[in-house]
Amino acid sequence: MSPGFQGRPRSAEPALPPGQYLTEDFPVLSAGPTPKVPLETWEFVITTENGDERRWSWAELMALPQETAEVDLHCVTRWSKLHTSWQGISLDTLLDGLDTDAHFALAHSYGGYTTNLPLDDLRGGRAWVAHTYDGAPLHPEHGGPARLLVPHLYLWKSAKWVRGIKLRTMDQPGFWETAGYHDYGDPWREQRYQGD
User: Which InterPro entries has this protein been placed in (predicted)?
Assistant: First the structure.
């Protein structure tokens, strides 16, 4: 090595998935109107492939162990927002002890939106029902009162206004997946659309 050789300077930019750009904003993208969901009637239901149900009211959900997660968000429209702070209930807590042979999940939202995920992607400390963003109750435009948060996948998999998850033995595409978006949605593999 020649004296004084120091190589290329390292970039100050954070590592982003391919094709993404960094934003400080939190863009709002929705396929329809924002539903109004009163906390008095809100509920979250997990339904097994056999039709067995677990239900939580808002108060019951808030009484469960809470976790804080600092995660990066990646939207299929190519923006990424880093170091976002959320509070919610781990899907590990909600799924704990559930008798199921399912390998897939279909998340359902108030307003009719659905999205599909492998059940393993909701376990292992990788997914939450999130109700707080940046220290404040989650605003309805961002999915409040609660949204699914699955930050290792593109953001459309983190269903806004979540009301339940149906466990399935076979995969069933959700709203965006039937419109041509990728079934899995890994931002690091640029799985934006079917065939990617």
Answer: OxRdtase_Mopterin-bd_dom, OxRdtase_Mopterin-bd_sf
Regarding pTM above 0.70, the answer is yes
CB 103 within 8 A of CB 143: no
**Could you tell me if residue 83 is inside a domain?**
yes
Range of the domain at 140: 40-189
Most distant CA pair in the chain, distance: 71
145: preceding bond cis by omega (within 30 degrees): yes
CA distances from 101 to 19, 64, 104, 134, 169 (A): 37, 25, 9, 36, 7
The CATH number covering residue 138 comes to 3.90.420.10
CB 104 within 8 A of CB 118: yes
Low-confidence ranges of the chain (pLDDT < 50): 1-11
Q: What is the pLDDT of residues 51-94, one digit of tens each?
A: 999 999 999 999 999 999 999 999 999 999 999 999 999 999 99
Tokens of 34: 């924002």
